[in-house]
Design brief:
The chain has about 450 residues and is an alpha/beta fold. The protein has 13 helices and 20 strands.
Length: about 450
């Protein structure tokens, strides 16, 4: 009787079901234990919306001291910041998260100057900074202020038709100024005509597309600044002479750069890269997808930048300088020396064939310890203007260049991208079709299929 019961079909099915339930329960228990012990996640969004950026990861993983992020909020609202703060803790064992209710611990809140709920304070060693906002930009900014300490100022030369940092028009640099602020740089405009001397508080000097020639005292001030250990970024456009908008040769300034090993050719690079055309770029925009080996561009591999209205460079080391190429134009590019006409002949025998060097970075040996001068040269200024800074990797290239010049190599990376707007805009007729299809069409198909199966079996 027992043997017959063991061989019965119902017994086998019951045993199979029992084993199946035990296996599923064991798998669920093991999965939950592992998930609780190893808090890992994978972000499948196109722009990694729910992941911290490479810049944040580099900063946190390279911490040399323990860091504490104290989150002040009501106990019932700690979950508002928990997901984001846990991502920081997962990056490094040096990061600890403390949750404090200012109503229950008013003394701690008073010590840190907390006035609002939902505020984070980052402590590294003896330094502490309050996050300006409860997002990655705000918290990582507090980390940077803790680590860097002193104020870093980027000074933009003005007075000769350069792009302006407070100009919000398409050719202004207001967006570049905002990007610099995210890396905790201050920006200001300076003039070198009134006093031919770079102010002492300038961490980096930027010459952003002057249209008029610099006077010799201005050039001497820039030369003395870099050769004395200063840092400078030169964005110099080709000397176009088209219509009423002409750009000066600026021979005095380019002669200084030539003495440092960077010769700016008087030409205009035209790029017929088919990939650039697919991206909607005209031939006056050089599309760069490959880079040399240099800290500014090492993290840009796989990211394209667009350099409009560019001139070519020739580089070589000198007895005082070491020059490194950053990137070239494509093999399908050419350079024309006809800078006075908008009509360019592709078949002009005077055209030079590419690729051409478009950007370079150099170091100047001052002969003194720990006082090396640095400079970077790009044969275009429009790529950092408001109308082009948002193109692909242009913003990262601009910030990486300033980071390297300011000796902030630990900040060089790919920054978080803005969220994609993936909303679908439909007309009223389209909305009605979607509603009818989802509410009536699909259910009707299921009903018809069910009736057909029932009728066939019957």
């Amino acid at each position: 009787m027992a043997a017959r019961w063991l061989r019965a079909r119902q017994t086998k099915y019951a045993a199979y079901a029992f084993v199946y339930v035990i296996v599923v329960l064991a798998a669920v228990v093991v999965f939950n234990v592992l998930a609780n012990r190893y808090d890992k996640s994978y972000d499948t969004t196109s722009n990694k919306r729910y992941s911290l950026s490479e810049q944040t990861a580099k900063i946190v993983k390279n911490l040399k001291q323990d860091a504490t992020i104290t989150y002040f909020n009501q106990s019932t609202r700690f979950h508002d910041g928990k997901d984001l703060l846990d991502e920081y803790a997962n990056l490094s064992p040096r990061v600890r998260i403390d949750y404090v209710d200012p109503d229950k611990s008013p003394q701690l809140a008073r010590e840190d100057g907390i006035r609002d709920y939902g505020t984070a304070v980052v402590r590294i060693g003896e330094k502490k900074e309050t996050a300006k906002s409860m997002d990655e930009e705000g918290i990582t900014g507090a980390f940077i202020r803790d680590l860097k300490g002193n104020t870093r100022t980027v000074c933009f030369v003005t007075g000769s038709g350069e792009h302006q940092i407070d100009d919000t028009d398409r050719d202004g640099l207001s967006q570049f100024k905002d990007l610099l602020a995210k890396d905790e740089y201050q920006s200001k405009s300076i003039g070198l005509l009134q006093k031919a001397e770079v102010p002492d508080d300038c961490t980096t000097l930027v010459v952003a597309g002057p249209t008029h020639a610099y006077e010799q005292p201005e050039v001497d001030a820039i030369k003395n600044y870099v050769e004395g250990g200063g840092r400078a970024l030169f964005l110099l456009d080709p000397p176009l002479q088209i219509g009423s908008s002409s750009i000066s040769d600026n021979d005095a300034l380019t002669s200084v750069l030539q003495g440092w090993g960077v010769t700016l050719d008087k030409d205009l690079v035209i790029d017929f890269n088919p990939i650039g055309q697919l991206a909607g770029l005209g031939p006056q925009v050089a599309l760069v997808t490959q880079y040399a080996s240099q800290p500014i561009v090492n993290d840009l591999k796989g990211t394209a930048v667009g350099i409009p209205l560019a001139r070519s460079l020739e580089i070589k080391d000198t007895d005082k300088t070491t020059i490194q190429k950053l990137f070239d134009s494509s093999d399908s590019s050419l350079a024309t020396s006809n800078l006075s006409s908008p009509d360019i002949s592709i078949r002009d025998p005077k055209n030079k064939k590419g690729p051409f060097t478009l950007a370079a970075a150099g170091s100047y040996s001052t002969g003194k310890p720990n006082s090396q001068g640095r400079f970077a040269v790009v044969g275009s200024s429009t790529w950092v203007a408001n109308r082009f800074l948002g193109f692909n990797g242009n913003g990262d290239l601009a910030l990486n260049t300033v980071n390297w010049l300011s000796s902030d190599e630990d900040l060089i990376s790919i920054r978080p991208k803005p969220e994609d707007d993936r909303r679908i805009t439909m007309t009223r007729a389209q909305l009605n079709r979607v509603r009818l299809t989802s509410q009536f069409g699909f259910p009707l198909v299921v009903i018809v299929a069910g009736v057909a199966v029932w009728w066939k079996r019957r």
